[in-house]
Each structure stands twice: as structure tokens, then as C-alpha cells.
Write a structure and sequence with these properties.
It contains 12 helices and 13 strands. By secondary structure, it is α/β, with parallel strands linked by helices. Strands 3, 4, 5, 6, 9, 10 and 11 form a 7-stranded mixed β-sheet that branches. Strands 1-2 form a two-stranded antiparallel ribbon. Strands 7-8 form a two-stranded parallel ribbon. Helix 1 packs across helix 3, helix 2 crosses helix 3 and helix 6 packs across helix 12.
Length: 325
């Protein structure tokens, strides 16, 4: 009989590639991870891993076994959920990973509402970008990842992983009042910013790549003077007039009224905020309840552009929020 714990170690190794990364994820030593792999090889009677430079890769037999391991571990989680279903109470733990803006805007409201609706449900949150959180989702470290998909740059297709759109979030060119005063709204806005400094996200991120592509389409290479994953840092560069940036509506909810915004194109473009999870877990009661709440609260909190007033000289600016609290 194959040991389920060792199958979990093999799955982690497949996704994380190194013994040290697996050890960190499972809170154990690298020697313990190595021992579990060796014991599994003895149980199955074939080599499951082989060196690939400084990393380990699975042999063909190892890849076959990982496919079974994925199904076995998913079935065990389903069994746990079905055993709790007759209790007619949403319970258990859902581990969520999301990018910074989601954590600063709608996600706390989602967690608060879930706590009120389902007192026996626990939400554990981790902040991270998709480059980090998607591999962790595949290995079972998270149950749900909230990520973003930009126009023309869809999220990667991963076997067994499902994507569900939560809402669409318009993208804007953000700048200070002084820079905005030089803009002619009837003309291509991005093309008028060829000499501006730009504040963008970290190297190789999807948002940064998208911004660079838009600038190149307008005929210039952006002069990047600020590269940071921290939204507050990019805000500061924009507010002080040092840089312009592409920011979604969700991020602008956190900005000062001094930031002005213009459409990124004649027909403004939108990113999609998506929930990502294992397909076989979609019907888990606690996961289904969490996704439903994300759609309701996240989509509902995306007010229309009526939150902004159009100043023909300075672009769009935030108006006072008069909604009842």
C-alpha cells in the first residue's frame, strides 16, 4: 500500500523542483524529504527522480505516479468535505492567496462577510503574486488564488486548474495635475507621454509587460524610473509628479484626489480579476461559498465611473464618496 504522505512529498517535489523548497513548504528538513522519496522508490520498485543540473526532475515513472497522486489527494479532500456536508454547515479552512491590491480593497470585506455568514469557516490569507502562488496552488499549499489577467495576456492554461472571472476592472493612465494639464484628451493619451517617466511593477510581471507593450504600440520605449511591487511606492511617484502609471480602478480607490486619470485607449481597456482553483474542488461547499462571496462582494464593490468627475483640463478626479456606510 502506497503511503499518502510520501505521495504528497513527491507531488511537492514535482511542482517545487528542489528538496529545500519542498522542505520549507512542508516544514521539515531536506534530509527528511530525501528519505521519504527514497522510501517511496523502495515501495514502488523503480526510480522516481533523477538529477537535472542543481535540481531534481521526475522520471517517466515518477510523472505517472504524480498523476495518480494528484487524483488520490484530491479524492481524499473531497471525501473530507462530503463527510461534513450532512452537517449542513459550511466549515473547515480555505487558504487564499492574492495580489496586493485585492488585499487592500475588497478581500477584507469578503473575509468579514464569510465570518458572519459561516462562523465555522476559517479563511487563511497570504499575499503573493501569481508567479509564486500558482505553483503553490498546484502543490496544494493554497485552495484558491486570486490573480489578474490583462487584455491580450490571458492567464496560463494549466491542466486540472480552473479559472473563474470575478469581475472586470478598468485600466487608467494615472498622473498628477501638472502632467494632466498638458494632455489633450481628444488625442492618443499614451502617445503624449513618450517623454514622461513611468512607474511600473517588478521585472517580468504581467502588468509591467502590458504597459511596455502599450507604449511600444504608441511608438516609444517607456523611460522607467520606478520599479516596485508596492502600490504605495508607485502612488507616491505619481502624486509627486515624478512618474505616470497605468492603474486599475480598484487601485485608484486607494489614491488621493490629487491623482488624475485618463483612458488607456479610445475604448478603455480592462483587466480581469480571476479566481483560480483545482477543478475537482469546485464543488467543495466551503470553496464554493468563498467564490460566491468573492463574486458578490468584489463585483459589487466595483462602482462605475460615476465615482469620478471629468475635468476637461485635468482628466478624471475622485469625487466624494456619498454612499451610505
Amino acid at each position: 500500500m502506497l503511503n499518502v504522505g510520501r505521495l504528497r512529498v513527491l507531488r511537492e517535489l514535482h511542482h517545487r523542483k528542489t528538496l529545500s523548497a519542498v522542505a520549507e513548504a512542508l516544514s521539515c528538513s531536506t534530509s527528511a524529504v530525501s528519505q521519504q522519496v527514497r522510501l517511496l522508490e523502495q515501495e514502488i520498485g523503480v526510480a522516481l527522480v533523477e538529477p537535472a543540473g542543481r535540481r531534481l526532475q521526475l522520471t517517466s515513472q515518477g510523472l505517472t505516479l504524480v498523476d495518480y497522486a494528484e487524483k488520490i489527494l484530491d479524492m481524499l479532500e473531497q471525501a473530507e468535505d462530503e463527510m461534513s456536508a450532512p452537517l449542513e454547515q459550511i466549515r473547515g479552512t480555505v487558504k487564499i492567496a492574492a495580489f496586493q491590491t485585492a488585499a487592500l480593497t475588497f478581500l477584507p470585506r469578503v473575509i468579514r462577510e464569510l465570518r458572519e455568514l459561516h462562523p465555522e469557516l476559517t479563511i487563511e490569507f497570504h499575499q503573493g503574486e501569481p508567479e509564486e502562488t500558482l505553483p503553490a496552488l498546484q502543490s496544494g499549499e493554497y485552495d484558491l488564488v486570486i490573480a489578474e489577467a490583462y487584455p491580450g495576456m490571458p492567464a496560463p492554461s494549466i491542466p486540472g486548474i480552473e479559472y473563474e472571472t470575478l469581475f472586470e476592472d478598468p485600466l487608467w493612465l494615472a498622473m498628477d495635475s501638472s502632467t494632466a494639464s498638458t494632455i489633450e484628451p481628444e488625442r492618443d493619451i499614451i502617445g503624449q507621454l513618450a517623454e514622461a517617466g513611468w512607474a511600473v511593477e517588478a521585472q517580468d510581471s504581467v502588468p509591467r509587460t502590458w504597459v511596455i507593450n502599450q507604449c511600444r504600440k504608441a511608438g516609444f520605449e517607456p523611460r522607467i524610473i520606478c520599479s516596485s511591487e508596492d502600490l504605495a511606492v508607485r502612488f507616491h511617484f505619481v502624486e509627486t509628479g515624478l512618474a505616470v502609471a497605468v492603474l486599475p480602478t480598484m487601485a485608484l480607490e486607494l489614491s488621493s484626489s490629487e491623482i488624475r486619470k485618463f483612458p488607456t485607449a479610445e475604448s478603455n481597456q480592462e483587466r480581469k480579476v480571476v479566481a483560480i482553483f483545482h477543478h475537482v474542488q469546485r464543488d467543495r461547499p466551503n470553496l464554493a461559498a468563498t467564490i460566491s462571496c468573492l463574486q458578490r462582494v468584489g463585483g459589487g464593490s466595483r462602482s462605475s465611473d460615476s465615482r469620478y468627475l471629468l475635468d476637461r483640463t485635468h482628466g478624471w478626479r475622485a469625487q466624494p464618496d456619498l454612499r451610505p456606510r
